[in-house]
Amino acid sequence: MKVRTVFAALLAAVVLAGCGGAPTPEPTQPEPTAPANNSDELRRAKQDAKIADCPTSDPAVAAVSSGLPDLVLSCLGGGRDVRLAGLRGRPMMINIWAQWCQPCQDEAPYIAEVANGNDTDLMILGVDYEDPRPDRAIEFARVLEWRFPQLVDQDKVLAGPLQITGPPQTFFVRADGTIAGRHVGPFRSADQIRAQAKEYLGVTL
């Protein structure tokens, strides 16, 4: 598959294996300091990658039982913060990922295929999880042409409320804010994503 070949080649310099937690740098080759998430450098990189602005969220609507937690996450590369419990009105697919996570890399082309062909009301969001390198996350999104909005959970605040042991995980959320389903681990095809969107949300992609 062409997109997978291009993806592997372009990300070779930044790929770090394993998904149990962010990897520790080699002591003889310390990691360069990553730019702050809201730095001008990352804002420019986000713009170049054509990543969409993060959605608006209602600051006042009450959180719902069996819904997204009442937590606020930053937007990758800068932009408006997002209150998860305030995201209403559209069905959503929320993918928890990290650029250092090998299974995330494996499923990434399938998510790109679905997202770039999405002409429905489904909102697709990413959450860059436990990732010390937002610059690499933006590069990951640029290479894959992931142009849908991306949030940041560097401190794993979603781990407890959503029972996340590590990426990737994907949540299917109804327009009323309740969670309809969860997929743990990587998707194996774009058709698998489409099937679950149909099953959980009634959305035909």
Strand adjacency order, main sheet: 2-1-5-4-3-6-7
Strand content: 15-25%
Structural class: alpha/beta
Tell me the major beta sheet.
Answer: 7 strands, mixed
Can you put this structure into words, describing what you see?
By secondary structure, the protein is of the alpha/beta class. It has 6 helices and 7 strands, in the order ααβββαβαβαββα. Strands 2-1-5-4-3-6-7 form a 7-stranded mixed sheet, with helices on one face. Helix 3 links the parallel strand 3 and strand 4. Helix 3 packs across helix 6. The chain is globular. The chain starts with a helix and ends with a helix.
What key attributes describe this structure?
205 residues; alpha/beta; 6 helices; globular
Write the topology of this structure.
Blueprint: H1 2-10, H2 40-49, E1 72-75, E2 82-83, E3 92-97, H3 102-116, E4 123-129, H4 134-144, E5 150-153, H5 159-162, E6 169-173, E7 179-184, H6 190-201
Parallel strand pairs: 3-4, 4-5
Antiparallel strand pairs: 1-2, 1-5, 3-6, 6-7
Briefly characterize the structure.
With 205 residues, the protein is an alpha/beta fold. The chain is 30% helix and 17% strand. Helix 3 links the parallel strand 3 and strand 4.
